[in-house]
Every structure is written in C-alpha cells, then in structure tokens.
Specification:
The protein is an alpha/beta fold and about 600 residues long. The chain has three domains: about 70 residues, Urease, subunit C, domain 1 (Roll); about 350 residues, TIM Barrel; about 160 residues, Jelly Rolls (Sandwich). The protein is about 25% helix and about 25% strand. Strand 2 and strand 3 form a beta hairpin. The radius of gyration is 27 Å and the shape is globular.
Length: about 600
Amino acid sequence: MLGPLGAACERGGPSNPPSDPIIGPALVFDDVHVFDGADDLGTTDVVVRDGVITSIGHVELAGAGPEVEVIDGRGKTLLPGLIDGHVHVSSISQLDQAAAFGVTTVLDMFMDEITMRAIVRQQAKGKLPDAAELRSSGTLATAPGGHGTEYGVEIPTVASPDEAAAWVAERVERGVNYIKIVDDDGHAAAVEFGNLDLATIEALIAGAHAHERLAVVHVSDLAAAKRSLRAGADGLAHVWFDAPADDEVLALLAERHAFVIATAVVMQTACADPRVREVAADARLAALIDPRELGGLLEMLDANAGARPCTHALTTIGQLDAAGIDLIAGTDIPNFGLPIGLAMHVELSLLVDAGLSPIAALRAATRTPADRFRMLDRGRIEPGARADLILVEGDPLRDIAATRELVGVWKAGAAIDLATRRQEIAKAIAAAEARRSAPPPPGSESGLVSDFEVDLSTAYGLAWEPATDEVAGGTSSVELSRVAGGMLGSEGALLIRGEVAAGTRAWAGANFFPSVERATVNLSSKRWLRFGARGTPGTHAVLLFGSSPMPTMASFELADAREWTLVEIDLEAIRAPSSELTFVFIGATTPGPFELRIDDVRIE
C-alpha cells in the first residue's frame, strides 16, 4: 500500500497523517485512484461502514481483522455510482440490470404510476438490494393528443391553465419526485402532436415550484427550448435537435441556471450512428446483457440505417459544455431498443465525442444530476455520502472506455453480484448459439406453411391464430376464417377481417408460430417469405419476431381489392431473425377497418 506521501505525489491526492489500525466491520478500498464526482483525488484509501463513506485518506491495514474487507485498488479507479438522468421504467428487472452496469440511481421521466408506487414501496422496505434506486415524475403533463398519448395507454392530460394546479397536486399526492412537462408539437421529428400553450406551461411550472418540485420540460426544437426556459423551466429533458444552440438560448440557460439532460445516445441511435454499435457491441458490456436484448438494439440500428440523417445534437451538446451549462447524462431507454445500463456507457462515450472531457462526462453522470435533482447523499465520494460506488480497471478520467471494464458495483456499501450475472449471460449466449445451429423444424422441408385448402392448419407449428394489440392494452379487433376461393383458383384462403384502433402502436392480423411450443426455430436455410394477398387497398404489414423484443418489419401494397397479388419478402435483405424465428404476423397497422385474404403461404 502506498503511504500518504506517495499517494499525494503520484496524483496530487489528499495526504493524511498515519492513523491507528482500522477496526471493523468495514469495507476498505486500498490504494485506489478516486474520482469523487467532481475532481480527481489521486490515489488514496476509502473506508465504508454501514453503507456510508466514513473517511478518505491513509488507512493503516496492518493488524486489521477478518471483519475488515479490503479491496485492492491498484490500477483501478473508484467512482460514484452512475446516475441515468432520463429513463422510462416498467419493471424491477430493468433496475437490476441498470445496477449491474454501474448505474445505481435512475431518474424516470414517464412511467405508470401504479408501477412507480409499487417499486418505491419495495425500495423503502429494503427489498430491492440489487436494483438501482428509482426516482420518478410518474406520468407527464401533456395536452390532449400530445406527445405521451400515442402509446395506447390513457393518461391524464392538461387542457388549460385552470387544470394545471390540480394536475400537479395529484402527482405530488402520488409521490412523484419532480414534474415532467411536454412542450413539443412534433414538427422537429416530422410528426404532429397537440401541444400545451404557453400559459398552461407557465401554470404547470408554477404549480411544480409551489410544491417544491423541479419542473423538467421535454423539448425537441430550439423554439420550444427558449419558450420553456422563459416560462421558468428548471431543466430540459432532451437537447433539441432541429438547430444548433444560438446566443439567445445560451443566455436563457445561464440566466435560469437551467440544466439540459443530453440523451445523446437516443439521438444517435435514431440515425444509426456507427459509434453506438461500436460501444454497444464491446465484449466487456456484452458479457452483462442478455444477447436477445443486445440483438434487438443491433437490429434496430440496422433498421435505422439511412432512414434519417443525424441531427445537430452532438454539436449542440458541445456548445452547451463550452458555455458552462450543466449537462446531465441520460439515455431515454427503452426507446429505439436501447437497453438500460448498457446505454449509459454509450452515452458517456458520445458526450466525449461531442467535446466534453472524460472528467466532464463523468460529472454529468454523477455529481451534476445528484446536485440538480437534490440527491445530496449520492453522486459523490466524501465522508457521510451513501456508498453507491463502482470500481473499474484503468483510468476513465483519461479514457472514458475504461468505465466498461467493471470490476465491482456497490449499492449502499453492499456488493452487486456481477460474477453470477456474467455466468448467467454466458449461458444465455451459449443457448443462443445452439438455437442458431439447430436443424429446421420437421415439416418445413417443402417450404409450404399453409394452403388453406381445408382449414387454418399449417404444415408445421401451430395453426394460424388471431393477433391484436389487446395484449398491450389496445382495443383493435380481428376475426379469422377460412373462405372458399384462393389465388390461382385454389380451394380456399385465410380471411383476416378486423379494425385497427387509433394509436401508433396498434395492430390486428394473424400469427403463425413455427413451433408448437412457441419456441424459437432455425429457418436460416430459407430465403423467402411468399404468399398471395388480396384485400383493402393500401399498406399492410408483415412482422417477424425473433428472440429479441424488437420485430423485423416489412410491408406490402394492395392496389385493387378484387385482384390477387404475389407478395415476396427477401428475408436476408430485411435482416429477418430467421435463425431464431418465434412467429410471423401478417395484418394491418393502419387505423381503420380492413379485410385481407392470404393464400399459399411459404417460407422457402
């Protein structure tokens, strides 16, 4: 162990006089490089007792008993647990995963309030020791038809300034930590939303402040950023992406001492920035995440490639940093398939690419969000602080990629079991490899799935079955039946008749499961999905689901309801999950009634 003089000389860290031998129980990080959330403390020792940091400086370990756990910090860096400043949480398993990646606190910006309250109760009882701690806004304040209403779940909206005070009071009564407000008409993303007027935004912010809650405003364009700041916003939930920063917005941010949650990773994932893939596929991170979830992100990046240009987001983040505006690292998971925890390491890398120094990027994920969201017990390494800590190999203050080399994570001084998680993920990776090398299911040799000559049965797997968004709380409807008269004079066809409800995540159609156990199958030897189709003119959908939660999407057009059309989908070209196919959906996703007949379905 380096003495105090050696430690101070090596990195300029604190120098304490020799001390008496330490008495346990205690956790000691010995000779470790420390970033305290704001500054580089150099090499020193850190002591934790009862979940709290009790001292920083030289510790005499000679004669220490077995009740003193000593962590060798040589060659390693100790950091405060990371704080993700923008997530959307739906389950405790997400919080477990966040902690495994070193994210020990998450700030949720829109979630179901019943789920929120259930998780908070479990936290308060100490029943979630391995999960990141949740803070949340609950639902968000948006106009009727505004952003947040498009997901098919009913939420309380705000139609006028007169409704603002009661809306905020209800959120506070339900236990939210801050208030999230939407100022976004959608034009920056080429969509259209209802939006709050200025008077209502001002009333919501005033209501938040009356209850001593921060008012965080979602924006996507520069004009909305300025409007919300003039209205009194404490911070912005995204960097805007329609234009770089100008002098006016920088002055408003400085005057308000407002913060900006960067969410660089969701911006760059939307445009398939190759840097997202590069970090996400890092073997050090991949060892901590289910391969199906990682595969879903990589498939999303493939799907987004060339779909839209990258925006001004990184340029604007660099401008904000240069102007001294408080930046907070946030990921906006699970949008665009981003996995919680892993996405934070991508965010840190992108912040550095935007112009932040590694130490500034780490402040944005530790001390700054802790201070700005009034969590003064964390985001720092100092006596009296909660011992939410991560230990990494190397020096992330020089190379931000070192955060991916996780040695250990501690939440309130208790270690998260990374070894078991890595073992479980290794087994999942091996199982995925086995699925990809499995033979195709019996009965698939000819390529025929169904010809509907007699009924809705299939050559292999399960018979066709109805599928709607009802499983996700939607109200779309559908009925399946065999009807006489198929393509090219065949005996029969499958009739899919239904109605797709309004909403961006609505669907109705028919599913085919190629396994009777509804398990994944390997159809990678097949290149084409072909079938005859006839029905309501317009665009219809094909979704192919694999082991990841994100489907591969394709579409086909029908011009004349009386004419059969041969639909051919190149599975290789659309990067379908053929080696791990779970089911195929054929139907509609456009709101309104529809009728669709399909015949002679083949995967060959």
